[in-house]
Structure formats: C-alpha cells, structure tokens
Amino acid sequence: MMLSLADAAARLGVAPATLRVQIGRGVLHAVLIGHSYIVEDAEVERYRRDHLGKYGYASPDHPRHAPQATTTPPPAIVDAGHVDAVHAVPQVAEPKAEARADLMAAMDALAEAKRQEVAGRITYDELRAAGVRVLELRNAALVAAGKAPQAISSRRISDIIR
C-alpha cells in the first residue's frame, strides 16, 4: 500500500518535514511524483522499527553511520603566567620546543610592553611591534606543529595588544 508523506508522518507521529529530511539523508526511501512523495507501507514500518525514537545515527545500517574515530582531548592552552596575553598562545598540541620557548618569551615581552605603555614609557607603535612579534611567533609555532598559519591583520594586532 502506498502512502502520501502526510499520511506516513501521521502514522509515525512526526512532522512531514521530518520525513522530508530523512528522505534527503537517504534514511527513508520514497518516490517523488510531481511535487509529492509517496512512501510504501513496508518502508514506513521499517523506518519505525530501525530509526524512530532513536537518537542520531543509532542504527548500524544507517547510510551515514561510520565507526567513531578515537577522539583526542582538546589541546591545552599554555598559560604564560599573565592573563592579558594568554589568548595569544596557539592552541596546538605539541609545538616544537624552540618555537614554544620563543613564543613564551615574546608573550612575556608583550605583557611588559603593555605595562610600559600604560606607564607612558613606550609609544603605541612600540607596543604594536611587540604584538606583531607575538603573532609572527604564534604562526611559527603553528607551522612547527603542522598547522596552517593565520593572517596577521590590523584587527588581530589590535585584539592582542588590548
């Protein structure tokens, strides 16, 4: 027996839009006639048995079901000892030691430059140069870790020296 999408949705207790999404994903098989979908009764029952009430891709025969890759914990943010420049540290798992040491030294220099600029001992341009140096070394650490470097824009420089 063939059912319209609205009838199939009523039988399953879901919205017709839900079934359209499932058809688009390949979970529910239907035939498009004109602008309307037609679903076989057996297909509706298969969907009820295999998918209805299950969260996400619970069914092992789901077309998009794939074995879960082992997840690695998110990389830790390296604490430079001062809150102002912590956001400048790259979130990379294991950067090379030299790149990391250079970056940490530049962050310490940036923190000191911020204190000096507030005290009026250095100019804004000198503070900006310290910020650019941190971003350059951050990119070096990203490259050392095998990640893509980020563009150094005026916006990034402004964000880091605030």
The largest sheet has its strands arranged as: 1-3-2
Alpha-beta classification: mainly alpha
Any low-confidence stretches, pLDDT <50, length ≥5?
A: 74-95
Strand content: 5-15%
Number of strands: 3
Overview of this protein structure:
The protein has helices at residues 5-12, 16-25, 41-50, 97-119, 124-144, 154-161; strands spanning 2-4, 31-33, 36-40. With 162 residues, it is mainly alpha-helical. It has 2 domains: 2-50; 86-161, no CATH class. Helix 1 crosses helix 2 and helix 5 (124-144) packs across helix 6 (154-161). The longest helix has 23 residues, at 97-119. The chain is rod-shaped.
Keywords:
162 residues; mainly alpha; 7% strand; rod-shaped
Question: What's the topology here?
Answer:
Blueprint: E1 2-4, H1 5-12, H2 16-25, E2 31-33, E3 36-40, H3 41-50, H4 97-119, H5 124-144, H6 154-161
Antiparallel strand pairs: 1-3, 2-3
Helix pairs in contact: 1-2, 4-5, 5-6
Summarize the structure.
The chain has 162 residues and is mostly helical.
